[in-house]
Design goal:
By secondary structure, this protein is α/β, with parallel strands linked by helices. The protein has 9 helices and 10 strands. Strands 5-4-1-6-7-9-8-10 form an 8-stranded mixed beta sheet, with helices on both faces. The chain has a two-stranded antiparallel sheet with strand order 2-3. The radius of gyration is 18 Å and the shape is globular. The N and C termini lie far apart (37 Å).
Length: 286
């Protein structure tokens, strides 16, 4: 359909969860000298201007990242993400954020000379922005092609180390199944990679179907070490709209569950209300 534009939602509560986890995963990967692949299936524009008409129309970042940048009690595990935002916005002390990083920009902060970045995006406007963002970024490879197939085509990476982010727009219900199935196939090719799958909580049964696809063992699914983290602003509802957001993470860094157990109560207190909730659950053991 290609009608989805993340610029409307950049910096909202879902981005806060997704990108704070991504910073922790990438930070962990860089603790070893050996290089790794970062693969992003639905990369978007790379960087977002919060003053543009898209962000200003919804103002979602004002209820997300803008509420956190000047807080003095940031949990240690959330600090790398907040530091990145402040690096991009040196005047953030005035509460005026101008830039918000998409996942490629988060990755760029951590990638080293020995690492390589592979970004996929189909939207004709976003791919232009993404190419512009990646100009002069050595070892960043951008393709306007299907990200699901792109992920599978790059595995296993030569280094045998990799982080894969699958972050579809879920314009189509098929994306829920397709995203999980891509990780199951990817795992069969590269079982030691770290996979991060973002999802919205719009209809709970769709999330439960994703969980079941991961946890129901069959001949084609041997996924192990699966963590689920979720942050919901409000209770599930049958009405239209996203009430929460979550991530399925295969092979997470060993301390990630504990880190999110510290971060999520903080996000609930700062961004949520008395209806808000969070989950940290090890769905499949190592």
């Amino acid at each position: 359909m290609l009608s989805y534009r993340h610029a409307f939602h950049a910096g909202n509560f879902a981005d806060v969860l997704k990108h704070s986890v991504l910073t922790l995963v990438l930070d962990y990967m860089t603790r070893k000298e050996k290089g790794f692949h970062y693969i992003d299936s639905h990369s978007g524009a790379g960087m977002y201007q919060l003053a543009d008409e898209y962000s200003q129309k919804t103002g979602e970042y004002k209820a997300g990242i803008a509420k956190l940048v000047n807080e003095l009690d940031i949990p240690e595990a959330l600090q790398p993400y907040i530091d990145l935002i402040n690096e991009l916005n040196p005047d953030s002390g005035s509460n005026e954020l101008t830039l918000y990083p998409g996942s490629p920009a988060v990755a760029k902060r951590y990638m080293r000379r020995q690492d390589s970045t592979h970004l996929f995006e189909l939207h004709p406007t976003d791919i232009e922005h993404l190419n512009e963002f990646c100009y002069r970024w050595k070892k960043a490879f951008v393709k306007q092609s299907d990200g699901y197939q792109g992920v599978l085509g790059l595995l296993p990476p030569p280094s045998r180390r990799g982080v894969v982010l699958i972050d579809p727009p879920y314009e189509l219900k098929e994306d829920y199944h397709k995203a999980v199935n891509t990780i199951i196939k990817a795992y069969s090719k590269f079982a030691t990679g770290t996979y991060i799958l973002w999802y919205p909580v719009v209809k709970r049964d769709l999330v439960e179907a994703m969980k079941s696809a991961f946890t129901n063992k069959n001949a084609n699914n041997n996924v192990k070490n699966l963590l689920q983290v979720e942050f919901c602003l409000s209770a599930d509802t049958n009405e239209y709209g996203m009430t929460g957001t979550g991530l399925f993470i295969v092979n997470p860094p060993w301390q990630l569950a504990q880190q999110m157990a510290e971060v999520l109560p903080y996000l609930r207190d700062k961004l949520g209300n008395n209806e808000s909730s969070f989950t940290v659950a090890q769905l499949i053991a190592e």
